[in-house]
Amino acid sequence: MATFLYKLGRLAFRRRHFVALIWVALLTLAGVGAASAPPAGNSSFSIPGTEAQKAFDLLEQRFPGASADGATARVVFKAPAGEKMTDAGNKATVEKTVDELADGSEVASVADPYTGDAVSKDGAIAYASVKYDVSGMELEESTKDALEDAAQQARDAGLTVEIGGDALQAVPETGATEVIGIAVAAVVLVITFGSLVAAGLPLLTALIGVGIGVSSITALASALELGSTTSILAMMIGLAVGIDYALFIVSRYRAELAEGREREEAAGRAVGTAGSAVVFAGLTVVIALVGLAVVNIPMLTKMGIAAAGTVAIAVLIALTMIPALLGYAGRRVKPAGAKGRLLGRSRKGEPKPDRPGGQPKANLGTRWASFVVRRPLAVLLLGVIGLGAAAVPATSLELGLPDDGSQPTSTTQRRAYDLLSEGFGPGFNGPLMVVVDAKGSDAPKDAFDDVAGEIKGLDGVVAVTPPAPNKGGDTATITVVPDSKPSSVQTEDLVHAIRDAGGDIEATTGAETLVTGSTAMNIDVSQKLNDALVPYLVLVVGLAFLLLIVVFRSILVPLKAALGFLLSVMAALGAVVAVFQWGWLAGLMGVEETGPVMSMMPIFMVGVVFGLAMDYEVFLVTRMREAYVHGEKPHQAVVTGFKHGARVVTAAAVIMMAVFAGFIGSSESMVKMIGFGLAIAVFFDAFVVRMAIVPAVLALLGKKAWWLPKWLDRALPNVDVEGEGLRTAAERGTGPDEDRELVRT
Question: How far is Cα 669 from Cα 413, in angstroms, rounded to an integer?
């Protein structure tokens, strides 16, 4: 591995014009594809294998032309104080609005409040339901404008009017904080390298990689039904890992220069050593993201694969374009310690000796590692107890999917939600649709009535509409309004009660009862994600564990890495619950409405955080193993690893946190929550687990940390992540290209 990457790095350095041309051409091609691609259509949300999805598919089959996946809007009217919606003037205004809404070219139907029993008992609130032929993301702007104009005219007539539903669904925005995150990353890079040129290389390559990845996603969005959230998450992860991977190679290049090597040789060795760590770190991230496919939710699978593709591009760019750009930069990228005038250092860059005998003062990483190896048990206990305390809120984790009730109070969707709750009860915002398939029943109509009667007798039911059969008379829909809000435990219990009752009815009548609708979909998604979490953990952690055994040639080091990850992810979930569910620091994070944590958050965090956690494990511990392999004692190897790697890993973690935190300003609650969760997870994992717990455990284990059974050592391939082959060749006085034995290695 090291020898191959060494050759690749030298080749990219020498053929930099060709390498740069290839990447610029790919960026241009992806950009042209994105610009010429048709706009993304609906990102279909399906959950195969669930009852809610089965009922939805049955509706499309038995009720053709009903536009089951079409956008909907609820135009909610409230009369002025002291008036009612049934007053003549207010009624005339509503009927005029309904007539205007019905004229739209994409409108399938509009229900008049006065003929559809859509006026509250006190007469203060009414609503008109609008059904469209196409999905919310496919609605033309003129249709949305017509909806808002009709509502505004009713407002001008004196009514309070708000619009709920997904007809006004907008593409999420990330906000200015994303740019701030990149700016923070730039500042950290300048401080780390002390050079604008060296700092600019990771930023430039990361932006090119993200540009190619996001443009490719945009170009394929329509064909593959990729949602807008997919590209945002790919950008989030691609930026973070792209900057970090380039940072590690540039840092190693400067270290090789400091040892007196020529620039081309230094580039080759940087890619051969740090590049090997980048490859395996990238592989762990890709495994974690692609592994999301085991959940069998197409939207989550697409998000994972798209983000994994962006990570793969970041790895390739780091291995090829970074050495090419280093060739262009020439002497403007200085050896480690020679930071020039930017931070007030001399050109020679030697730190001033401040110890007797002229020895330079040990850096912060060395001093910290020395402290940890002297008191490993105390550091270990403090780290574990601290993360355990942060994880406590996760014990009260409640899962759900966002609805209009989780929107900011400044949005018309949220105000419409509140008005409907006020006029018709909290359950009205999450009605359940019961689908009765009586194709196998001898008396379909009786079966429909039996189901409706059974549901009416259940606790927690406010209203049940009469069965509405299809033209064939073999299937009917029944709308059930709970007395609790959509995201409540009571509503979930009602869904299970209806399904249990349906099983008894099927046994006697032969008619199958299915529950669907957005509320039932959310419940099924949460259950499916919960069921998939353990198999996903086993798959991803198991594959990565095997990969890390190959990298570190140890059993206990990968085991310690996996256990440390579990600590960080649980602590991060606890922080997410504290902020988004309990409301701690909610104002600071821009969270206007607390509620259940999104159902996909735990499994998504497990995947992404595991991949990122292994990044720091690989980058930091490979330096320790490199020192151990070259003869240092275990405790000294830990200190040496921190001496060379702590500063860079710290910079990488701060950069990744800044990039993720930049997405907290997104208007999309899912992106906001994931941005915060990943940022806090990186903090816990990099600064508590990898910087404290890992060296403490390695200090306690000593030589046992690097133990590997002899039979397994013989069976494993020698990937030479530490660049041992390169160093051996140098000791022999030959180049790696001339050493046949090393080439075979």
Answer: 14
Tokens found for residue 738: 């001339």
Instruction: Count how many Cα atoms sit within 13 Å of the Cα of residue 541 in the half-sphere of its side chain.
Output: 19
Give the residue-averaged pLDDT of 482-487: 85
Distances (CA, A) of 425 to 297, 463, 563: 32, 11, 47
DSSP 3-state of 479:
strand
Q: How many residues does the chain have?
A: 745
Which structure tokens are listed for 242? 């792209």
Per-residue confidence band for 743, with pLDDT thresholds at 50, 70 and 90: very low
Q: How far apart are CA 642 and CA 646, in angstroms?
A: 5
Give the integer Cα–Cα distance in Å for 696 and 563: 14
Burial class (CB in 10 A: 0-12, 13-18, 19+), 117: exposed
Separation CA 228–CA 154 (nearest Å): 33
Confidence of residue 439 (pLDDT cuts 50, 70, 90): confident
pLDDT at 170: 62
This prediction has a pTM of 0.78
The DSSP H or E segment spanning 475 is strand 475-482
| DSSP code per residue over 37-90 | SPPP-------TTSHHHHHHHHHHHHSTTS-TTS-EEEEEEEPPTT--TTSHHH
Cβ neighbors of 349 (< 8 A, separation 6 or more) are: 334, 335, 337, 338, 339, 340
3-state secondary structure string, 543-574?
HHHHHHHHHHCCCHHHHHHHHHHHHHHHHHHH
Q: Distance between CA 292 and CA 308 in Å, rounded?
A: 10
For residue 84, with 0-12 CB atoms within 10 Å meaning exposed, 13-18 middle and 19 or more buried, which class applies? middle
Contact 276, 725 (CB under 8 A): no
Sign of CA dihedral 518, 522, 523, 528: positive
Residue with the bigger pLDDT between 720 and 442: it is: 442
Phi, psi at 195, each rounded to 5°: -145, 130
* Side chain identity at residue 204, one-letter code: L
Give dist(CA 368, CA 387) in Å, integer: 20
Write out the two tokens for 452.
């409706």
Confidence of residue 739 (pLDDT cuts 50, 70, 90): very low
Question: Does residue 613 have a pLDDT over 70?
Answer: yes
Residue 493 contacts residue 33 (beta carbons within 8 Å): no
Q: What is the pLDDT of residues 53-104, one digit of tens each?
A: 888 888 888 887 665 567 788 899 999 988 999 999 999 999 999 999 888 7
Candidates 351, 394, 311, 372; CA nearest to 680 is 394
Of 288, 247, 292, the C-alpha closest to 562 is 288
Provide CB contacts within 8 A for 469, sequence distance 6+.
444, 445, 448, 475, 476
pLDDT digits (tens, 9 = 90+) for 152-208: 999 999 999 999 887 777 655 555 556 777 788 888 888 877 778 888 888 899 889
Show Cβ contacts of residue 68 under 8 Å, excluding neighbours closer than 6 positions.
56, 59, 60
| 360 secondary structure, DSSP code | B
Q: Which residues contact 64 (CB under 8 A, 6 or more apart)?
A: none
Distance CA 517, CA 522 (A): 9
Contact in structure between 571 and 390 (CB atoms under 8 Å): yes
Residue 476 Cα to chain centre, angstroms: 39
